[in-house]
Amino acid sequence: MAPARLDVISAGDELRRERELRSLRDVLERIEGVAITYEETDIAPRPGVKSVPAMADTAIWLALSGGAARLGAVAIREWAAVQRGRRVRLTRGDEEIEIEGVIDPTAARLLEEFLGKDSP
Predict the structure, then answer these.
(1) Which residues span the domain enclosing 43?
(2) pTM for this structure?
(3) At what angle do helices 105-116 and 68-82 cross, to 10 degrees?
């Protein structure tokens, strides 16, 4: 399977977004057949604060093999449902799917199909 870029979306709260991304990454890493690559970016120090630039996790690249697409979809769906307002966007090529909170069975099926297909 071609990898999909996975982003956690938060309303401008970068610390929360990174914390949530790491939480989701920890859940997904427990699944056999899941390979994760980290995407990082430089963070400049805040104005007026003496510190060196840092690195932050901005997204993860998720590759699933074998039957891991179903397990990955369930893990993402359950992770998003735990806390109100959790949003995840997955992108592969020109295709994109976004889920938030508790999703209905149709959206769950679309997520599983998205994770299970090869790149467009």
Answers:
(1) 4-116
(2) 0.78
(3) 140
